[in-house]
Amino acid sequence: MPTGTILVADDDAAIRTVLNQALSRAGYTVRLTSNATTLWRWVSSGDGDLVITDVVMPDENIFDVLPRIRKMRPDLPVVVMSAQNTFMTAIRASEKGAYEYLPKPFDLKELTTIVGRAMSEPKGRPASPAEETNEHIPLVGRSPAMQEIYRVLARLMQTDLTVMISGESGTGKELVAKALHDYGKRRNGPFVAINMAAIPRDLIEAELFGHEKGAFTGAQARSSGRFEQADGGTLFLDEIGDMPMEAQTRLLRVLQQGEYTTVGGRTPIKTDVRIIAATNKDLSHLIQQGLFREDLFYRLNVVPIRLPALRERLEDIGDLVRHFFMLAEQEGLPSKQIDQAALERLRRHRWPGNVRELENLIRRLAALYPQDVITTSLIDQELSQPAPSSLNGEDASQNLGDSVERYLNGYFDNFGEALPPPGLYHRILREVEYPLISAALAATRGNQIRAAELLGVNRNTLRKKVKDLDIQVIRSSR
Ligand SMILES: Nc1ncnc2c1ncn2[C@@H]1O[C@H](COP(=O)(O)OP(=O)(O)OP(=O)(O)O)[C@@H](O)[C@H]1O
Q1: What is the mean pLDDT of the chain?
Q2: How far is CA 232 from CA 126, 276, 290, in A?
Q3: For a tag site, which of 30, 62, 119, 201 has the least CB within 10 Å?
Q4: Residue whose CA lies nearest to ligand 1 atom number 12
Q5: CB 103 within 8 A of CB 82
Q6: Residue to probe by mutation, ligand 1, list 356, 358, 361, most atoms within 8 Å of CB
Q7: What's the confidence (pLDDT) of residue 385?
Q8: Residue 140 C-alpha to ligand 1 middle, in angstroms?
Q9: How many angstroms separate the CA atoms of 217 and 345, rounded?
Q10: CATH class of the region 144-308
Q11: Structural domain spans, the chain
């Protein structure tokens, strides 16, 4: 039977009663109060082994009291409950050092599990997570569409539910998956991402589940898979629609049984992984075509989140532009402003590449133009250029070196007497690498092994480049 004293603060008498019953039944001594002043009096006189508290109380907001509690008794776990189910409440709770955040209404069983865990943990663990939260809010945008997303995310924050994120390419699916991990209860565990479209189909199972030595030609040693690497954390399965059938069957079995075997292995391995999947394809369409298992779909689609395309939330463009200029500045690029007409011009664009397209545009504007204020004409110029390469000479027969030279002359001219920002070598190589790798992948229909051969680079190098340069790999059989 557990022991210890729990201090409960909530101005709602019904909640106090319910918590009193549940926690007393579990064996704890419970003290109840309806205000923050009494709570603080107890805490400051050394009473209690754990606090459960509401956020808004008649005399004070708990977020103002929490820093004092953390300072005076850093070992005292504080569980914060709130009916204000916003992304920010969840984040603020962790920022202020709460042990856990529970959106109301919550499951009593979950609460007693959290209490049990907190009471049995060794004292002296570092004041909870997220030092990064102060300076950086991951998801930008205040449009109604994004607010709806935040509401869902806040509700999901303290759960381990499987989430399926859908949305066009570049809408922020991976970012949302990362936010769910970083601010959720698995944040101290690993976040492992795997993109089904970026891995040769016949290697996907080995990548996911690991393989034994000699399991297939080339398997010279045992290798761990992403499930093992993500143990205790989150596994992000990107482009899930590209998962081959056999791997789907295997994944389904893991989701049903909570264990898996490596490729070539026999011993079942228990897994403790939270799954977040993402797709930019219509999975119901793939199910109809027999390319995606319906039973797997239902297992993954426990909580569906659909991310809006950027053209559905054009009101966020101003915030996003400021955000990306700020990021560019942090990377050492010059500070820029944008005028109102240019912003309007951006709002008229269709954004087929969504936020990624906007981000890349802002980066180019910050890196390539000396002007402090970005105007419509610059935007027009950029949006009319075929992205992302700017190296295309009008004359295709010209050699590449000439094109680059011509491009660089124009580039330096843009700065007049001044020099362009530092880092030119890598920026230019990146500009060349992108079309080069994209062309090799297109020519090999997305087969990275063949593309690596064609380019004469190592397969892992190519995979890394594809990731770093954010290249879309589209596999086609024909
Ligand atoms: N709401 C947002 N706020 C700030 N940055 C964002 C937002 N949405 C997307 N981004 C940025 O846009 C880029 C693309 O996002 P991300 O990679 O998450 O998209 P995706 O939907 O996973 O794309 P794909 O389907 O092509 O993999 C990233 O650099 C990300 O940081």
Answers
A1: 85
A2: 19, 14, 33
A3: 119
A4: 356
A5: yes
A6: 356
A7: 61
A8: 10
A9: 55
A10: alpha beta
A11: 5-132, 144-308
Of the options 3.40.630.30, 3.40.50.2300, 3.40.50.620, 3.40.1830.10, the CATH number for the domain spanning 5-132: 3.40.50.2300
| Complex-level ipTM | 0.98
Task: Give the range among 12-21, 23-32, 123-132, 293-302 with minimum mean pLDDT.
Answer: 123-132
Measured distance CA(86)–CA(153) in Å, rounded: 8
Lowest mean pLDDT among 176-180, 361-365, 407-411: 407-411
Tell me which residue has its CA closest to atom 16 in ligand 1.
Answer: 172
109 alpha carbon – ligand 1 mean position (Å): 36
User: What would the DSSP string read from start to end of 168-224?
Assistant: STTSSHHHHHHHHHHTSTTTTS-EEEEEGGGS-GGGHHHHHH-B-TTSSTT--S-B-
Overall pTM surpassing 0.80 (yes/no): no
144-308: same fold as 5-132? Answer: yes
What is the chain's alpha carbon radius of gyration, rounded to the nearest angstrom?
26
H or E, element range at 464 = helix 459-468
